[in-house]
């Protein structure tokens, strides 16, 4: 008998019970109810994934050999940031409770706050490893404490000093950079010190968040705030081998905005980052 | 427990058993295995449908009130026209056997031949009602009998004279137009005589095929062969009221090529045509 | 001595004191702080206006002969709908207080609520004349009372029955259409009865809001929710002669989203609508 | 033996000697030496023509039945308007001398002045029939007498009153419209009176110039100055039957700017206009 | 007397007799007869070549100093892979017979098989040097032995082990990579060992095939299957100096798909690769 | 009281009197009066600047700490190169006279000649430091001495040998490269020797001109003549620290063509280059 159409990331066809890792989309990009940007990212990545192979010659691993489920996009309350974060937190909690790894596809960067809370609940010593162009360390953005420009500051509210590792940062206010001097570990412009993390963190639970705008706009034009001077894809690739060696307990990729790249290359990049990251962290 | 991501046309969430109409995609556009055109149409229409309402103020009907299932795209053998047509025929046959109405989203126009064969098997007196910019009546196209430029001629091979009704035609060779004079019913440039069909056909089983390039490229640029001088959307809308009065036993819409319209308007048009057509013919 | 760069709608170079009409932009499209859609509309319209002439052969009027000031975009609190509406209300109030006509360029349609409040304060019998594809009459949208899908319902909260005139509507839920039967004056699909308004309304103060998606997506693809079956530009043009005969005390045009139309045609359309509307209503 | 690649409008493969009509491109759009706009029009039209049929069901004529040669683009002196016009004049003169009909594909509208001079030399009583959105009647444009905004005024310098017939005009300064009252025949907004020309002009030699922006930007977005409110393609089509009945001795189509329409629809429109116009006027 | 329009790669104006190298296009991308992708590549490269100089400062060579003919696109049988390959083989054979070097512009990568057969006929010890993102070593693709995903495997059928040199490969199935271990020479991710070829191959006849997707999608988005992590243009440039030192007897560049890059940059890249490659290998 | 809309580069809100640096746009790209390319660059850069921060972590400087005025675009005489250059010269002279630093945003590269003359008048020993893909050293371009392809040759007419420093050059005729051997200092393909300039030039007055096509088309597709093989943004960034150490008395950035990059990335790059360059040279 015919079945309703499924639309999942390539080869991620495990059931919830079988799965080690569970994908969920966070189609949040503000209060407008149609069209603008990152809300379409997870869907675009699913579609684009079929242009890739399941096998990664970089990691010598294959999606066919691991158990991943794609649960689709979370049904969020458009236009209500507070509720959206709660809904994403609940989704991550459900996955964590079943001892699986939550893998979120944003959405704007603010969405990271939701699942991070659920992860922190289960792993109180969890640290954030962030690849990003922007510090996201403002205390408020035009008076607003919840914003994609403040999200890492909000996470610092949870972890305190020593809990935030930032890489590839090339944009922020002077105040943000100054603040990071005493409150976070931050590498400007590159990710060279990322490889020191396995020694440093050992078995510490890690939440990996990749704001895809850490990549240079040449390879990733489809994002809300393109910032020239970022990573090439080749410069990013070694990060996945580092993540293989960490105790990653949750991850996300955020800030793909498909409408801004008609060529579709940004979608392909995001789909490949998703593959590599899932292969690196799925047990 | 979490479920795998579904991706169906808005509100078309019936099970196969419940459904009166069953949607299936025909992602066929030749032998290239990634990217080119119409293969992405059904997926694009599903995504875009969520920008519409379920209610049609034209027909005063609502998708919430009918039972439709979206079975996804048929898994076709890329690059093998003969097999693809067999696969689409088999899908249509399965739906017809369960006494449901098959609703196909192409794909290039050649795909119509597959389900038409299955429909003709069940309804030997079925006729084709075609809205199109092109005659599609060539006997062969550069030596090839199976092509989007010959598809209606191939269907005529099955129905014989009296079985083909063509509307909105504005492009073809002189030979095609001449041939149509004695073998098909053809209205050039417009669809004014479409409204006579209910009286003419009464209960005759009808296969409706809408090549979306019957619409003017102003409203439908996203197609393989844009032909200026077509229908406005408003000029097309009354066709759905005509289809309501016919004994439509199968239908399709074809030739949306999403990559050629970055604005997304062509997707929105195709999604709306799908809604109106499904509402018109679903019992 | 050199002056800072000004950027105003073509020929709208009056001072505030001189001006009869004052343009202000409402760059609101949700909480995302960069890129998405309608927030860029007013700026795009200003730039595009220089591709037009100041003279309208339709109205036989010239922008050179009237006094209009372009005050730029209001400095809004991104991501806070309630405050944004207050800020727009305050701007309109300042203009009205000086006995000038406020002319707003949105932004998403929700923005209309702000200035409408200020207008209603000065003219308690003001009515809304709306050209739109969508009813915008939901009482709430996914639980949220303030939304572009509810804005006209919110304005009805202020005016009560008899205060809302809707034209060109071709999309909405069945509930919205049913509700409009007893609470608003609504013409479906076209604007033929618009010409009856001068006789009907006489000197009643009128707020004109043009949701540019009343136009067909063929001529106006650059919008958030394209809905096929709308007005051609030629079908819209007579509306401006009707507005000439009404006592229009405020006006806006909304829902241009420049990023969705790379060809720039939507910007040109919006700029021309702005010219015609300003010429029609400026004393 | 293999031959160098030819690139001609579909089916226009006559030799110069055989040809009744000779196509030449005028790739002029100012002094920039790469990329900007209309200079690429003729090449784009040639490529796009292969998406059409050679047969026109409107005119019941076929390019296979007439003799047309495509001589390619004239080798112009970039950035020197005076010389460019001389070069285009010389090309037209060579074609006219051989008693063939020159058919130019612009380029910006200024290019019409060059061939018009050559035509006037051979046919001193030639009149201009212009389809356009803009009057092009300024005496100078920012001090400059040679401009696409002055070209018809320059042609009036040659023909004097009674020599200019303008249709579809919907943009200009008040001065231009006023001037036209006494110096040209001008129909605003539409082309309804075009059908009176055969009776009026009888055998008078006619130069037909179609500024493609006479079409609405919905169907023709790829142009330098889109002006909403223009002709649909269907409204333009009858013009070709009128041209069939005139003594057309030269023609051009101008102002296609391919880079501004990524969908390629504008190219398709221009190619179809070229086919219809060539079929209408080629003996 | 005026001549029909020629359209050749910049400065490639030799006659067949004069020419050392002969360009021919292979506009094959499947069975769809209009629009999709790579079939438009050769034409786009010809047009774009005029934005380059004839002189290469990298190779210190000038197209003005060599004799190249551009014979246009081969007239292929659309939708029939077997025939298309025969037609391309015949074209290459004709060029080789005249002791000239065939230079093909694809088309999808499958096209390489045609001319390779002709080259192998003349030079039985010919080897393939391939730059590519993908292995193209599948034995069949969804049951189909002739596909762009199998083309190098088909060529291996002809050359046997030792005849295939692959560089820059970053995508394939695990099976393909494993198979290459014993059957081809393959460098993953980069082309560093390419410079060893002159010593290794000495005078062995070489067929060079450049799948342009070996380049990173940042610089080459206009291709069917963008795969992040590829070469920058600067990383590719030294390859041409290597090719200068090999006994190259035929070459091609494939997989440019102009519709997928509205910016035109991919066309410019392909045109420059063509210039450098032709300068490197033309005697 | 409300003020007319200002549109200035982010944070460049000084008055003329306060300003150390004055921005002015040169919207020149030939004689076409609407739409084509670089004329829209300055406006696009102003808009895009608001996506950046005012603080540069590279230079550790902030626009908030310097005094810059944005005077808008110069009101040029379209289509008259000679006059345009005079107008730009006059603007630069006015700024220099007030002992401020002129900072021009082009426009095509020819515009540099205008302000260079004014700078040379005040600083007769001024030298040109040029970052570019192209030599721009032709003596004439198709007979025309004033062109974007000849602009540096014209500046050499003023400075004589020893006055021109060229970096990143990767395109030109053989004659241009040969000529540069004896007349200019030219580094091919890279900008490695730029860092020697402070020692070499010491206090010599310097005019910096950055043709943005020195950047690779991967990061800067939005330009008239994309030339693969250019600088990454990271490779360009150190140049700004070099400029900090020079006695820069005037500067410009040229050749951004916004219409050719729908993603907006080129605008973002140009805006960031402007920020860095202004921070580097403003005292």
Automatic annotation (TrEMBL), chains A, B, C, D, E, F:
GO biological process terms, semicolon-separated: putrescine biosynthetic process from arginine, via agmatine
Keywords for the protein's UniProt record, in alphabetical order: Hydrolase, Manganese, Metal-binding
Required cofactor names: Mn(2+)
Pfam families: Arginase (PF00491)
Cofactor note: Binds 2 manganese ions per subunit.
Residues given in the record as Mn(2+) binding sites: 109, 132, 134, 136, 211, 213
Highest rank taxon of the organism: Bacteria
Keyword Transit peptide applies: no
Stated family: Belongs to the arginase family. Agmatinase subfamily.
NCBIfam families referenced in this protein's UniProt entry, alphabetically: agmatinase
The protein, known as: Agmatinase
Gene: speB
